[in-house]
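Hi support team,

I've been running sequence recovery on a batch of backbones for a student project. Most finish fine, but this one hangs at about 90% for roughly twenty minutes before it completes. I'm not sure whether the input is malformed or the queue is just slow. I've pasted the structure tokens below so you can try to reproduce it. Let me know if you need the job ID as well.

Thanks,
M.K.
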């Protein structure tokens, strides 16, 4: 089974928010975030998928998700690369 680590961004007039997660169905997960059924932090915002990477095991995806969640410099580089 394939797993994905992803980075979502949402902007308002003052600030850009980012969210990192992992899933085995990326389209469904982004849709759930956008309709308010995702993680509590993501509710009430419109999210755009700007980064995703595929992994062959859940363990590897979870490990990489943890690294990306805690590496703010890398998250910032990804956001800048994608115009945020």
């Amino acid at each position: 089974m394939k797993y994905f680590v992803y980075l979502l961004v949402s902007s308002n007039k003052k600030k850009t928010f980012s969210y990192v997660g992992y899933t085995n169905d990326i389209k469904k997960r982004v849709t759930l975030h956008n309709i308010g059924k995702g993680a509590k932090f993501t509710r009430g915002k419109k999210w755009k998928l700007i980064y995703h990477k595929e992994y062959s095991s859940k363990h590897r995806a979870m490990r990489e998700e943890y690294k990306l969640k805690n590496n703010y410099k890398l998250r910032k580089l990804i956001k800048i690369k994608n115009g945020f």
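--
Follow-up from support: It reproduced on our side and the slowdown came from queue contention, not your input. The chain has a mean pLDDT of 94. No action needed from you.
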